[in-house]
Amino acid sequence: MVSKLQGAIIAAGRGERLRNSTGADLPKPLVGLGGETMLARQAGALMAAGANSVIAIVNSETAQMAGEMKLAIPRGLKLVVRDTANSMETMLALKEFLEPGWFLAATVDAVIPQTELVRFVNESRKKIALYDDKDLGGLLAVTR
Q1: Is 12 in contact with 92 (CB distance < 8 Å)?
Q2: How far is 80 from 99, CA to CA, in rounded Å?
Q3: Which residues contact 108 (CB under 8 A, 6 or more apart)?
Q4: Strand, helix or coil at 78?
Q5: Which of 30, 41, 94, 119 has its CA 20 to 30 A from that of 57?
Q6: How does residue 1 score in pLDDT terms, banded at 50, 70 and 90?
Q7: CB atoms within 10 A of CB 28
Q8: How far apart are CA 10 and CA 129, in angstroms?
Q9: pLDDT tens digit sequence for 18-68
């Protein structure tokens, strides 16, 4: 049975389309949504869904701007700075930082209702329990 769940956020992109549409010259993780950055919002959502800790991979621009803006990093969130070519490379880089065991990964801009994220985690825990002694690679949720 899954007892410890780690969270992971893929946030190393520049967010060019969002920059162009908002006029704010900010990388996507630092864009405000509902009074907090997208990065803080996603970290909070993963922790509320049961993650004990969250690792976010951000690019060097995001890390530099967050420092310049003196943004507070939510408790339980660890930033890893890595400039990657694409989301797949970012996802593969996670393996260096995650402990063995189960994790819940999301992109920084996955705006999922909290109840749905919690439901996914709970259903995943049930599925994992069924396959605990077998080779279950993972579970994937796809949203519209």
Answers
A1: no
A2: 14
A3: 9, 10, 11, 28, 29, 38, 39, 42, 56
A4: strand
A5: 119
A6: very low
A7: 23
A8: 27
A9: 767 776 788 889 988 888 999 999 999 999 888 889 999 999 999 999 999
